[in-house]
Specification:
The protein has a domain of 171 residues: Aldolase class I (TIM Barrel, Alpha-Beta Barrel). It is built from nine helices and nine strands. It is 34% helix and 13% strand. Helix 1 packs parallel to helix 4 and helix 5 runs parallel beside helix 6. Strand 7, helix 6 and strand 8 form a beta-alpha-beta unit. The radius of gyration is 19 Å and the shape is globular.
Length: 261
């Protein structure tokens, strides 16, 4: 099972392995469907063979998505998932060509990006990044700005469709500095999407000032099936119920009222 730092054996099929860049367990507990909160496990360090398999799995997932009718795919290199685990020096303590300097730590992310582009075309591939995000035990480190500067240039060279840059400060994480967002705007010539706690006024302001091309909205769309209409009309918004997020039933996904209800 790839993304081992945020997986748990109780959530996996029998015989599945928990893998990660290095044998380093994330701090804290994780929710499991079978037994509730459980302690994080130590993943098995991925071999180069495992890495090759994972790259092809990303490529096949991209092909499957297009075959299923999707317009494109977004590679999730944020929030402590596997791609970000290779980027961050706390979760990636490898000494081979996938660890150490940022040119090595970014190699997996870029090889996955290349594989997805080859599979479905660069015009169908985007990527999500969360510099300064601390979710899933991704602490800050001094070289972060330089590392993401390198990544921004590399992604621009590949010509993928967009970068989705998420700022988790509305949920308690450190704020992504305006200088970091401006760097991505300068270095990446494709579409730049910003997200993180936006209301309609801030969204309109950042778009008008040219800070980005698009604004992504998550929690408010979950709780407001007619968010666009509400924003246009100035209607009150339903508050999202965080207690229902990531559960298996319909509560919190299909039961928020629309304006006409």
């Amino acid at each position: 099972m790839h993304g081992g730092r945020i997986a748990h054996p109780l959530n996996l099929p029998a015989g599945a392995r928990v893998l990660g860049p290095s044998a380093v367990a994330a701090v804290g507990d994780i929710y499991t469907d079978a037994e509730g909160m459980k302690q994080q496990v130590v993943p098995q360090e991925m071999s180069e063979g495992d890495i090759k398999v994972a790259i092809e799995e990303f490529a096949q997932a991209a092909r499957n998505s297009i075959e299923a009718g999707f317009d494109g795919i977004e590679l999730h290199s944020a929030n402590g998932y596997l791609l970000e685990q290779f980027l961050r020096p706390n979760s990636n303590q490898r000494t081979d060509r996938y660890g150490g300097a940022i040119e090595n730590r970014a190699r997996f992310v870029l090889e996955v990006t290349d594989a997805a582009i080859e599979a479905i075309g660069k015009e169908r591939v985007g990527i999500r990044l969360s510099p300064y995000g601390v979710f899933n035990d991704m602490p800050l480190y001094p070289e972060m700005d330089a590392d993401y500067h390198y990544l921004a240039r590399q992604l621009d060279e590949r010509g993928l469709l967009y970068i989705h840059l998420v700022d988790h400060s509305s949920m308690g994480a450190p704020e992504v500095p305006s200088s970091t967002k401006a760097m991505f705007r300068k270095e990446f010539k494709g579409t730049l999407i910003l997200s993180g706690g936006y209301d309609v006024a801030r969204a309109e302001s950042d778009l008008a000032e040219g800070k980005c091309d698009l604004i992504a909205v998550g929690r408010l769309f979950l709780s407001n099936p007619d968010l666009v209409t509400r924003w246009k009309s100035g209607a009150a918004l339903n508050a999202p119920d965080m207690n229902t997020f990531y559960l298996t039933g319909p509560n919190g996904y299909t039961d928020y009222p629309a304006l006409s209800q």
